[in-house]
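Reviewers of the previous submission asked for a worked example of the structure-prediction workflow described in the proposal, so we include one complete record here. The input consisted solely of the amino acid sequence. No template or homolog information was supplied to the procedure at any stage.
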Amino acid sequence: MEKSTAQLVDDIRFFQRFGMFHEMTCGVDSQHALLAPKVVDDVVSLVCPICGYEQNHIPDLVIGIRDSVKRELEKDIEFGTSGHIWLTCAIERINTMYPTAQQNALEGMLY
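From that input alone, the workflow returned the following structure tokens.
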């Protein structure tokens, strides 16, 4: 099933905040801000908000990550476990790095 433009943008935003993988950074200067989704005529690309560097390739890992994390969380809830230490660590990292408003936005993307 192909993702809608909105779903793909959500996946990119989630990936950039998830914290378990290296974020997608500018191809000109990795010290610039993180790449952000840009949509033109329903085509999604990644753009550096500092210099305008644009990347058309979105790695496969990014596409669907939000759905994968949600499935793992639902398994934990269903079975009453918290066996996914990587997920726990990632959520703790997000809690440390981002203000409450962004944390709430992350939770809203998951559920």
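Residues 24 and 35 are 6 Å apart (CA to CA). We consider this example representative of the routine output the project will generate in years two and three.
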